[in-house]
Design goal:
single chain; 448 residues; alpha+beta; Peroxisomal Thiolase, Chain A, domain 1; 19 strands; 23% strand; globular; binds acetyl coenzyme *A; hydroxymethylglutaryl-CoA synthase activity
Length: 448
């Protein structure tokens, strides 16, 4: 099987969002903290009408329609999510309604969960299935769906919500270079959800930032060494055209790319540009721990990598900056931003992806792009994603309304016997939404 990977994508996010500048003022944070400090513009959130199940129903239905895929042609469906609605029944089983209707119940796969990494686990499962001897010739389908909400406090502006769907098969315009994968998994308590009565995580913000960067370093080293083993030459950031990171907030992405450049400098000083080499020289003897603490290194490496960031990373930042952290969907929304911004020039390029989920699981992997053939072409995927129009159609609400919505959702989390409001005017046609939860906690959805 050749070029197994992503054939098609579709993307959905709720129509309501709050501006970070307004939230900053409302929260009494210093001006610029969320917009410049975290690097975020806007944050999407679900109202009482939507959740991870409805968003995934919406995005899967839309993908099948837009690429005219027969639901009987799906042989495996995997969902990545960390938003718990039911501790036993998978989100995947909800999506089976779409396939049952066409007489297709022969669909493998369930949900994968580990913070923001579940979508990558789901994606690897589908790609591995297509590459394996149990493949039956049909498509795989991966769905990443999350609603990221935090308790009041410094983490609240780093929420977000979206669902993304990816069709998997051979001869894909976005194929996996499966030989180059670097993984790093360890046990830490940086972000977790031990309180089952609440949707909010417990988060050690500072620790989660350091864990993310340590995982990045470790994955990058392993990724490089695998590349070097197969290619017989050193890897540096100049060997990839784009880098796409899991994006909890944009500032961490800026720091991450600078960190890769610093790694290149440490591994082989002559692989970085002369000016950068001179500026990074004072940091060449820092221990690992010292390097994570050094503000000077952070500043200097970001400064020397800035022009490369603009070229190799900036195109991926659109959706994560506009929608916030979409947990499992975050890295794939960043990838969708690259397709949106650069689809006509991506043929032949390599994109390196870094997926991180607290707790922790992380992998760096590589994708190779080909223009592809309609409907599975990069330009058609960009058309279907329809990013600009979707962003423009959003409805900006005031922070007061956002906070009020979160209060209602706190109340509703885990509750039974309620109906949702009838006001669905903000939802576009074809959107699924929650109508009620009955006395047996069974959820009911309708399609607008
Ligand atoms: N203007 C410009 N920049 C400012 C301003 C201002 N007025 N005020 C603060 N800043 C800068 C800070 O200097 C800092 O930037 P730096 O990191 O370059 O120094 C940045 O804004 C954030 O300020 P902090 O004081 O560090 O923010 P705080 O500690 O209050 O919260 C945090 C940030 C920890 C990320 C919090 O939002 C959080 O816990 N989020 C959830 C956890 C998370 O996303 N972790 C990432 C990986 S794990 C995952 O994906 C869930």
């Amino acid at each position: 099987r050749k070029d197994v990977g992503i054939l098609a994508m579709d993307f959905y996010f709720p129509p309501t969002c709050v501006q970070q500048e307004a939230l900053e003022a409302y929260d009494g944070a210093s001006k610029g903290k969320y917009t410049i400090g975290l690097g975020q513009d806007c944050m999407a959130f679900c109202t009482e009408l939507e959740d991870v199940i409805s968003m995934s129903l919406t995005v899967v239905t839309s993908l099948l329609e837009k690429y005219q895929i027969d639901p009987k042609q799906i042989g495996r469906l995997e969902v990545g999510s960390e938003t718990v609605i039911d501790k036993s029944k998978s989100i995947k089983t909800w999506l089976m309604q779409i396939f049952e209707e066409y007489g297709n119940t022969d669909v493998e796969g369930v949900d994968s969960t580990n913070a923001c990494y579940g979508g990558t686990a789901a994606l690897f499962n589908c790609v591995n299935w297509v590459e394996s001897s149990s493949w039956d010739g049909r498509y795989g389908l991966v769905v990443c769906t999350d609603s990221a909400v935090y308790a009041e406090g410094p983490a609240r502006p780093t929420g977000g919500a979206a669902a993304i769907a990816m069709l998997i098969g051979p001869n894909a315009p976005i194929s996996f270079e499966s030989k180059y994968r670097g993984t790093h998994m360890t046990h830490v308590y940086d972000f977790y959800k031990p309180n089952l009565a609440s949707e909010y995580p417990v988060v050690d913000g500072k620790l989660s930032q350091t864990c993310y960067l340590m995982a990045l370093d470790s994955c990058y080293k392993r990724f490089c060494s695998k590349y070097e083993k197969f290619e017989g030459k050193q890897f540096s950031i100049f060997d990839a055209d784009s880098f796409v990171f899991h994006s909890p907030y944009n500032k961490l992405v800026q720091k991450s790319f600078a960190r890769l450049y610093y790694n290149d400098f440490l591994r082989n000083p002559s692989s970085v540009e002369k000016d950068a080499r001179e500026k990074l020289e004072p940091f060449s003897t820092l221990t690992g721990d010292e390097s994570y603490q050094s503000r000077e290194l952070e500043k200097t490496s970001q400064q020397v990598a800035k022009h490369l960031y603009d070229e190799k990373v900036q195109p991926s930042t659109l959706l994560p900056k506009q929608l916030g952290n979409m947990y499992t969907a975050s890295i794939y929304a960043a990838f969708a931003s690259v397709l949106h911004n650069k689809h006509s020039t991506l043929g032949g390029q390599r994109i390196v992806m870094f997926s991180y989920g607290s707790g922790l699981s992380s992998t760096m992997f590589s994708l190779k792009l080909h223009d592809g053939q309609h409907p599975f072409s990069l330009s058609n995927i960009a058309t279907v994603l329809n990013v600009s129009e979707k962003l423009e159609a959003r409805h900006v609400v005031l922070p007061e309304k956002f906070v009020e919505t979160l209060k209602l959702m706190e109340h509703r989390y885990g509750a039974k016997d309620f109906v949702t409001g009838k006001e669905t005017s903000l939802l576009s046609p074809g959107t699924f939404y929650l109508t009620k939860v009955d006395s047996m906690y069974r959820r009911h959805y309708a399609k607008k």
